[in-house]
């Protein structure tokens, strides 16, 4: 997993923990442990993807466009991991019947299906219990 994906989740988690209220980039940088420029880059990508919105001005900042329970972990992975690997699909032309390629495609599709069931609120919400969440995921996989 790319570090950008982890930072994106941490940014969304911090905003979620603040009640999805407008949060400045400076506050996020201070609490997430990311450089200011990198934070802006990641948030700008999430803004263009429709995950975040921003408001300008002295009382401006960033917040989730929807409720935290409407942002799935898949949404984050799709933006920062999966959509970028789609650019490499041309490199894979002619490999559709390769057993390893077919196996990995199946794993990716199953993972994506599972991740749609878990949200930012599940991971970063006040009632978050990561151990319970992992157990639920394992139970779903059976």
Q: Explain this structure to me?
A:
- By secondary structure, the protein is mainly alpha-helical.
- The model has no long low-confidence stretch (mean pLDDT 86).
Short key terms for the protein model shown above:
142 residues; mainly alpha; Tscrpt_reg_Rrf2; Arc Repressor Mutant, subunit A; single chain; 59% helix; WH-like_DNA-bd_sf; WH_DNA-bd_sf; two-stranded antiparallel sheet
Topology:
Layout: H1 3-17, H2 25-32, H3 36-48, E1 52-55, E2 61-64, H4 73-86, H5 99-115, H6 120-124, H7 130-141
Antiparallel strand pairs: 1-2
Helix pairs in contact: 1-3, 1-4
Tally the structural domains.
1
- Write out the strand line-up for the largest beta sheet, numbering strands in chain order: 1-2
Largest sheet data: 2 strands, antiparallel
CATH architecture: Orthogonal Bundle
Distance from first to last alpha carbon: 24 Å
CATH topology heading: Arc Repressor Mutant, subunit A
Number of DSSP helical runs: 7
Work out the radius of gyration.
17 Å
Proportion of residues in helical segments:
55-70%
SS-based class: mainly alpha
Shape: globular
Helix and strand run: HHHEEHHHH
- Uncertain segments are none
Q: Bin the strand percentage.
A: 5-15%
CATH class: Mainly Alpha
How many strands in all? 2
The CATH H-level superfamily is: Winged helix-like DNA-binding domain superfamily/Winged helix DNA-binding domain
- Mean pLDDT value: 86
GO molecular function: DNA-binding transcription factor activity
Pfam family, one: Rrf2
GO cellular component, one term: cytosol
Protein name: Transcriptional regulator, Rrf2 family
């Amino acid at each position: 997993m790319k570090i950008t994906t982890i930072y994106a989740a941490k940014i969304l988690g911090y905003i979620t923990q603040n009640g999805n209220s407008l949060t400045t980039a400076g506050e996020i940088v201070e609490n997430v442990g990311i450089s200011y420029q990198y934070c802006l880059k990641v948030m700008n990508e999430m803004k263009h993807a429709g995950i975040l919105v921003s408001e300008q001005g002295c009382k401006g900042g960033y917040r989730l466009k929807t409720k935290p329970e409407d942002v799935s972990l898949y949404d984050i992975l799709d933006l920062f991991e999966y959509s970028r690997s789609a650019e490499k699909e041309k490199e894979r032309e002619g490999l559709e019947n390769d057993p390893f390629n077919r196996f990995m495609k199946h794993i990716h599709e199953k993972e994506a299906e599972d991740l749609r069931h878990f949200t930012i609120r599940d991971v970063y919400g006040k009632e978050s219990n990561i151990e319970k969440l992992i157990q639920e995921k394992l139970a779903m996989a059976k």
